[in-house]
Q: What sequence folds into this?
């Protein structure tokens, strides 16, 4: 079963997704390996979304030899991918291999870690740039961010995505690693969202980092500290 239901979220259980995540968790995996791993994970997750969330339909096709019935994925042209800068960039590169004709949106969001966490554990989020395509009823919208920790970033992002837009057919929040707190928060604030992740980790540490996690995804992918 490639996608399993766990509490309020769905988990991508493809063996290659688990293998790839284990490789990028490894502290010895340097920038290039880390970034390539995130690209690969995005591609696998894209294929799993097609398999688990989209339908196929029969279509007449003409091979060089004779007409026959084939199957086509419905709605492949109605996919919107939203890239939450910056750590989602390699993840989205992989998703685009599954959805090459996706319309794309970009939201630049970052946790203000210097300001510290509020009493409820959430971070203030700075949003610098928002550019979203028009969202239609028939769309599958995938909001991609490899890390869902406290959920502060994703909730701030979703505020922009749902504002002034119709309810799309699917609104999927896709992450590689999630903390239970973040999944709970997004689920409580946006009940229409389908939460999909490769791993639900144990907990958050005192700095709001996912444990065991993989560290700071943006820093590891962009070689900043
Ligand atoms: O669920 P949260 O507690 O909000 O944490 C998750 C967010 O934190 C990281 O981004 P960061 O702010 O480090 O920015 P970056 O992607 O530019 O590194 C990560 O990429 C998520 O966007
Ligand atoms: O564990 C975490 C939490 C937030 N952002 C990351 O990159 N990693
Ligand atoms: Mg971010």
A:
């Amino acid at each position: 079963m490639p996608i399993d239901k766990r509490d309020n979220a769905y988990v991508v259980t493809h063996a290659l997704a688990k293998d790839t995540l284990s490789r990028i968790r490894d502290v010895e995996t340097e920038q290039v390996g880390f970034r390539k791993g995130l690209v690969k994970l995005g591609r696998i997750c894209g294929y799993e979304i097609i398999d688990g969330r989209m339908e196929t339909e029969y279509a007449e096709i003409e091979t060089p030899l004779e007409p026959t019935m084939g199957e086509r994925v419905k709605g492949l042209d109605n996919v919107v991918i939203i890239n939450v800068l910056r750590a989602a960039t390699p993840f989205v590169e992989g998703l685009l291999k599954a959805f090459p004709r996706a319309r794309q949106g970009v939201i630049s969001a970052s946790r203000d870690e210097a300001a510290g966490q509020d009493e409820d554990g959430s971070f203030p989020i700075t949003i610098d740039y928002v550019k979203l395509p028009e969202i239609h009823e028939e769309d599958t919208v995938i909001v991609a961010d490899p890390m869902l920790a406290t959920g502060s970033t994703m909730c701030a992002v979703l505020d922009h995505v749902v504002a002034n837009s119709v309810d799309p057919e699917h609104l999927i929040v896709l992450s590689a690693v999630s903390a239970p707190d973040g999944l709970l928060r997004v689920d409580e604030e946006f009940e229409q969202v389908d939460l999909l992740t490769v791993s639900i980790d144990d907990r958050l540490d005192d700095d709001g980092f996912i444990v065991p996690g993989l560290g700071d995804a943006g820093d590891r992918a962009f070689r900043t500290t």
